[in-house]
Specification:
- The chain folds into 4 domains: 91 residues, Beta Barrel (conserved putative lor/sdh protein from methanococcus maripaludis s2 fold), CATH 2.40.420.20; 99 residues, Elongation Factor Tu (Ef-tu), domain 3 (Beta Barrel); 55 residues; 75 residues, Helix Hairpins, CATH 1.10.287.
- It is 28% helix and 37% strand.
- A 6-stranded antiparallel barrel has the order 2-11-14-13-12-15.
């Protein structure tokens, strides 16, 4: 009985075993599937040919072309202030008035003395003329004629002195009204009505800054000096933006290039002049400066993130028609945070990878990401 059962099991197992052997032979003889190349998502951009400025970045400070610390040329008590703090004032506009009564009195006294001495000088000149006639007729002595002539000359000199004194008194009366010497914006009061001002004091009553036009002073590296010298007569532009992040820029002209490099800092000082008709620039403000020396008409440009720096230098990944990428060495003429100008290595119309370069391996197939999150094979 056991022998029969064993034979029965063996008979039933032969077909199963044959099936297993056939299955193993089938899969054992097939070739392994080749590994799939990685698919790397990237963003791309086309190299373009377009005009690009040749510029030098810098940081500058706004400064008034003219600044006047207004003082008093005569002493006196301030009786009136004719402007408001921060007001725009014109050259010659009254700002402060001193008590003018002492100056009027001094002018009247000087004019009276001048009139008296003029009359005396006139009489002395007539007497000298008569003495000359008498002397020619031998009717008076040489001494008498000399005395008459000296008296006339002395009184004439006195009249000249009196005239100068009268003019000084007149000026002092005019100085009692203190006027703005320039057009500009008046600052804060340094004195008030009732204060006594000493003559010719060094302490200003108010400071007036000229705001239109206005300057921006900035420095460039000594290495940029040859380019500045080369293009300075081609009317370079100076573009500034406030350092507070405001995107509004203001354009002016290059007005000044210093005649020496600062040996301490190795920098060259320049100034840009701006009309500032809208008053956007304010003295003492720090600004971002771009000195645009000229414009290169046919520059080849790519987005700055497309340029990668490695041990062999700078390069970009150029997208091939089969969705692979080729490393292309490039020479970068200049660049900023957004754009790189390529001097050699890329032609207009070629597509370069701008993001995802670190994931690209040899043989990788690229999947181009487009705006909106879609992918383009």
């Amino acid at each position: 009985m056991p022998v029969r059962n064993s034979m029965r099991l063996l008979a039933h197992g032969v077909p199963v075993l044959a099936a297993l052997v056939s299955f193993a032979a089938l899969f054992g003889c097939s070739k392994p599937a080749p590994p799939r190349s990685p698919r790397v998502p990237v963003t791309v951009a086309r190299a373009e040919k377009r005009p690009m400025p040749i510029s030098v970045p810098a940081t500058g400070m706004v400064e008034a072309i003219q600044t006047a610390d207004v003082g008093s040329q005569v002493g006196g008590v301030i009786t009136k202030i004719d402007f408001h703090e921060g007001q725009e004032v014109r050259a010659g506009q009254p700002l402060f008035e001193l008590d003018a009564r002492p100056f009027r009195a001094a002018l009247g006294q000087a004019n009276g003395q001048l009139a008296r001495d003029r009359a005396q000088a006139y009489a002395a000149r007539l007497a000298a003329d008569r003495a000359a006639t008498l002397f020619q007729g031998n009717l008076i002595s040489q001494q008498d004629w000399d005395t008459a002539r000296a008296t006339a000359d002395g009184l004439t000199a006195t009249v000249q002195s009196d005239s100068a004194a009268a003019n000084t008194a007149k000026l002092n009366l005019e100085y009692a009204t203190i006027r703005s010497p320039i057009n500009g914006s008046a600052g804060a009061y340094k004195v008030h009505v009732g204060d006594y001002m000493k003559a010719a004091t060094s302490d200003p009553l108010v400071t007036v800054n000229q705001l239109r036009p206005i300057n921006v002073r900035f420095t460039v590296s000594e290495s940029d000096r040859p380019a500045v010298e080369h293009y300075r007569h081609g009317d370079p532009r100076v573009i500034v933006k406030p350092s507070n992040g405001d995107s509004v820029s203001v354009t002016g002209r290059l007005a000044f290039v210093d005649n020496a490099v600062d040996p301490t800092s190795g920098t060259l000082t320049l100034k840009g002049e701006f009309p500032n008709t809208d008053g956007k620039l304010w003295p003492g403000e720090f600004v971002e400066v771009s000195l645009v020396l000229t414009v290169q008409k046919d520059a080849i440009v790519v987005p700055a993130p497309a340029v990668t720096t490695g041990q062999q230098g700078t390069f970009v990944y150029v997208l091939n028609p089969d969705s692979t990428a080729t490393i292309r060495p490039v020479v970068v003429a200049r660049s900023d945070d957004a754009i790189a100008v390529i001097a050699k290595g890329v032609q207009p119309g070629e597509t370069v990878v701008t993001d995802g370069q670190s994931r690209i391996l040899p043989g990788s197939h690229l999947v181009v990401r487009v705006p909106g999150g879609h992918r383009k094979p």
